Automatic annotation (TrEMBL):
PANTHER family: PROTON-DEPENDENT OLIGOPEPTIDE FAMILY TRANSPORT PROTEIN (PTHR23517:SF15), RESISTANCE PROTEIN MDTM, PUTATIVE-RELATED-RELATED (PTHR23517). This is Amino acid transporter. PROSITE patterns: PTR2_2. InterPro entries: Dipep/tripep_permease, MFS_trans_sf, MFS_Transporters, POT_fam, PTR2_symporter_CS. Keywords: Cell membrane, Membrane, Transmembrane, Transmembrane helix, Transport. GO terms for cellular component: plasma membrane. It comes from Streptomyces nodosus. Belongs to the major facilitator superfamily. Proton-dependent oligopeptide transporter (POT/PTR) (TC 2.A.17) family. GO terms for biological process: tripeptide transmembrane transport. The keyword Transport applies. The chain crosses the membrane at residues 43-61, 67-88, 97-114, 120-138, 159-179, 185-205, 234-252, 258-277, 289-308, 336-357, 369-388, 400-418, 439-461, 467-486. GO terms for molecular function: dipeptide transmembrane transporter activity; peptide:proton symporter activity; tripeptide transmembrane transporter activity.
Length: 498
């Protein structure tokens, strides 16, 4: 996979005739493949999850419960990205943390593959923990491959890495989804485990190509801190075990005893983290101002992800029951819809990158606030579009597959105006004290959005009802218009960040 160019030919001054990966450090190939296989396992399992939850041959739950579980699971993955980064910084370092996380993900998929409903949620928990640990650290390791932020190859390296993410996400539903839906659900989960095993294997074999910086634990815990951490962890773990043992033996336990606390944490923790940073008196006036502006972007992103991530739950469950999932008369698995977004991302991302540069050269590139407003309005428009197939299904007919493809297309365009921009502005606006933590804060916007969806589902709200879909669409458009109306105020708060 490595090209035959030498490092000298790409990056003058670096000695040695070492092979490169498309002109980039050889370690990028290792991380590219690790992330590709991790995304293959994650998105394949995610494509199957809501369908397995509602299937008569699966757990045969109602749509509201399935949506709640899916939303809580996704919110938990992003919630755990924050402690995942902390764990690497204080305990193991990024390289060992990624290896451990990949093993945990593989173990989680193997647990899902067991044909017992009792082990299902344990498997989901393991995959969430592993994904949270990995997500926070593998991107950091990509950065370690380059000579600081001014290395001219850096942006290109992250672009190649991003392709790996979407390549794995594209292939996964086609492979894992087909096996799970057409042959056996648990065989599909087992295939996800195999994908992660391949990723872990090549990661361990290719570790010699990674930067030595990835082995470093930046701020290791002191002996006293380790003892304190173990004591606190043991206390809270024991408290949880005792609480759920009492609830279980009393006979009043239902799934909501587990889902509701996690959902509430997904809403409360992002608020507490943002508030703690905002109240920090060590931040100077400029940093305080930028954090105030950042709250606008954070709330906007939470609303966006609340609707966008229903593409894997609400839309998928609708497609399973109410769509004609056919192409030229051939029936395809419902999980294949989850491949639409990544293939569109790979096709459209270069177009948007070119568009922003072209507009910038002419002095007409939209501000960050305008891009965010556009993303919100587009995701709202996608749910206005969803009203059409809902109406068709309400009339007793099956909606055409192209309706769903159109919805995913509009959502993907919205994603490209908001998500990459959000990642970029997060790094630019981060206070110096919280520079390494702010990416985890950005992921908390996903947590808040999905936790809101989960809470609505747990409250018995049917997210496939016309009125609810219309209400969510209106909410997103109103939020987008509000961001647009206050764009100058937000721009002023951002200071010299553009």
């Amino acid at each position: 996979m490595a090209s035959s160019q030498t490092k000298d030919s790409v990056h003058p001054g670096t000695p040695g005739p070492e092979k490169t990966f498309f002109g980039h450090p050889r370690g990028l190939a290792t991380l590219f493949m690790t992330e590709m296989w991790e995304r293959f396992s994650y998105y394949g399992m995610r494509a199957l999850l809501p369908l397995y939850l509602v299937a008569p041959g699966g757990l045969h739950m109602n749509a509201a419960t399935a949506t709640a579980i899916y939303s809580v699971y996704v919110s938990l993955v992003y919630l755990l990205a924050l402690p995942g980064g902390w764990f690497a910084d204080r305990v193991l370092g990024p390289r060992k943390t990624v290896a451990v996380s990949a093993f945990i993900i593989m173990l989680g998929h193997l647990t899902l593959a067991l044909p017992f409903s009792g082990t299902f949620f344990a498997g989901l928990g393991l995959v969430a923990i592993g994904s949270g640990l990995l997500k926070a650290n593998i991107s950091t390791m990509v950065g370690h491959l380059y000579d600081g932020p001014d290395d001219p190859r850096r942006d290109g390296g992250f672009t190649i890495f991003y392709i790996g993410i979407n390549l794995g996400a594209f292939i996964a539903p086609l492979a894992i989804g087909t096996v799970g839906e057409k042959f056996d659900w648990h065989a599909g989960f087992a295939l996800a485990a195999l994908g992660m095993a391949l990723g872990l294997g090549q990661y361990l074999l290719g570790g010699r190509h990674l930067s030595e910086r990835s082995k470093v634990v930046p701020t290791p815990l002191s002996a006293a801190e380790k003892v304190s951490l173990l004591r606190k962890s043991a206390f809270w773990a024991a408290l949880a075990i005792v609480f759920y043992a009492i609830v279980g033996f009393s006979g009043v336990y239902t799934l909501n005893w587990l889902l509701v606390p996690i959902t509430l944490l997904g809403l409360v923790i992002p608020v507490l983290v943002i508030a703690r940073i905002k109240r920090d008196k060590e931040l100077d006036r400029t940093e305080q101002s930028r954090m105030t502006a950042y709250i606008w972007f954070f709330v906007a992103a939470a609303v966006f992800w609340m609707i966008y991530d229903q593409g894997g739950s609400t839309l998928s469950i609708f497609a399973d029951s109410s769509a004609k999932n056919t192409v030229f008369g051939w029936n395809f698995p419902v999980s294949w819809y989850q491949s639409v977004n990544p293939v569109l991302i790979m096709a459209l991302a270069p177009v948007f990158a070119w568009l922003w540069l072209a507009l910038n050269r002419r002095g007409k590139e939209p501000s960050t606030a305008v891009k965010f407003a556009s993303g919100l309005i587009l995701v709202g428009a996608s749910f206005f579009l969803f009203l059409a197939p809902l109406s068709i299904a309400g009339g007793g007919h099956k909606a055409a597959a192209l309706w769903l493809v159109a919805i995913y297309f509009v959502q993907t365009v919205g994603e490209l105006t908001l998500s990459p921009v959000g990642l970029s502005v997060t790094t630019k606006m981060a206070p110096a004290k919280y520079a390494s933590q702010m990416m985890g804060v950005w992921f908390l916007a996903v947590t808040a959005g999905d936790a809101t969806t989960g809470l609505l589902s747990l409250a018995g709200v049917d997210l496939n009802k016309t009125g609810i879909v219309a209400l969510e669409a209106v909410l997103a458009v109103v939020a987008g218009v509000a961001v647009w109306m206050y764009r100058n105020k937000v721009k002023q708060l951002m200071g010299n960040v553009r």
